[in-house]
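Structure Section — protein described below
Tokens — whole-number codes for backbone shape
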Amino acid sequence: MAKKDSVETTSFEKNIEELERVLGELEKGELPLENQLQLFESGIALSRTCLQKLEAVEKRVEQLVINAQGDLTTKPFDPPPENPC
């Protein structure tokens, strides 16, 4: 189980792997309730950390565009609107 402070300093990929492991354990349903609750809390922390890391990367992404003069330039990433489904 991941601890909160180590979750925040671990790579995104490692956090995703740990989140998948946590989900797998929860899906089995073989652990006592208290252990399941601890795993659930760990999964929530992992999920939040991954989301924060994705948001930080998204802010750094720039996309190349061609301006009116035909030159390549950059502009901040403008994510598409969220689908309200």
The first helix runs from residue 4 to 9. The mean pLDDT is 83. The chain has one domain: 4-76. DSSP finds three helices and two strands in the chain.
